[in-house]
Amino acid sequence: MTTGRGLGVGLVPRLGPAVADYPPGSTFGPREAKSFQFVWILRGRASWWHDGAAEPVQLEPGRLLLVRPGMRDSFRWDTDGPTRHAYVHFTLGDVVQPAQHQDPVLGPRALVSDPGAQALGSPEHWPLTHPIDERDGPIAALCRYLLWLGDARPDGWKERARDVLALLVVTFVAGPLPGDDDPPFPRPLDAMVRHVAGRWRDGVARPVPLTELATAASISPSSLSRLFRREFGVGPVAALELIRLARAEPLLWMSNLTMAAIAAQCGFTDAYHFSRRFRAAYGVPPSVFRADGAGSSRLAPVGQTRLRPLERRLRTVNARTS
Fold this sequence. Notes:
CATH topology of the largest domain: Jelly Rolls
CATH class of the largest domain: Mainly Beta
Keywords: Activator, DNA-binding, Transcription, Transcription regulation
Protein name: AraC family transcriptional regulator
InterPro entries: AraC-bd (IPR003313), AraC_XylS_family_regulators (IPR050204), Homeodomain-like_sf (IPR009057), HTH-like (IPR037923), HTH_AraC (IPR018060), HTH_AraC-typ_CS (IPR018062), RmlC-like_jellyroll (IPR014710)
Radius of gyration: 25 Å
Number of strands: 14
CATH architecture of the largest domain: Sandwich
CATH superfamily of the largest domain: Regulatory protein AraC
Number of helices: 14
Helix content: 40-55%
Distance between the termini: 31 Å
Strand content: 15-25%
Structural class: alpha+beta
Oligomer: single chain
Largest sheet: 6 strands, antiparallel
GO molecular function: DNA-binding transcription factor activity; sequence-specific DNA binding
Domain HTH araC/xylS-type: 194-292
């Protein structure tokens, strides 16, 4: 992964991170961008034209725009009401304008001599916009933190802002973070996951009977079992038990909780039942697993199956509904 310092991010003085409020119908440009610029709308909307594009890009809350140096562009803000617009201008390593480098095969293109920026490819091939998932996405969190740094300006805020900007660039350009690109679940599975997440909302990973899971999925128990085996290689009750057992791992390694307390948190009736099911899945009792510590070479059963997407989905839905 490209690091923040490897990208050589620099803030442009007096140009963010900050927020501007525009009255209805405000415009800006045409102009030639002198630096990179992230723009995102907090309230209202705007139209953005660039480099003779036939149609403008419509900007609304939930979309992040990246303007590249050398682009000719213009903005027109909402004519029906005021618009609040967040922005930050920055530089990246040794990025040179496309016209300054002639590739013998590809023709004019950007030259990126900084090793960190090279890992992301030529800026002219970077996307112009990226969704901002306000519920739990990393881009939304990074944008909020940037604005906080620009407003509060704590000691060392510029260094922190540069590091945050570097993470934002990498996430924006390189695409989804690991786990964000899981394919969507079939509708019955998605409904079932939401039901289970609701049952686990208080942090206790309770067992859920097959009939209840099937009712939530609006299909028969046998159909749900077939669907689970096709998607994950195991049945629904066994899959959820493995995920419940996986939730015991950090509690064994990083807490003083008793076995009875860990068993209760993971939805088992008592320490004996928990220990028996844990040993069946992991090959050792939880007391041995705890003694081995986090450096243990034992592989979690969830990691050896196709259950990681289901585990991530359950955590994501829980985070959104808690």
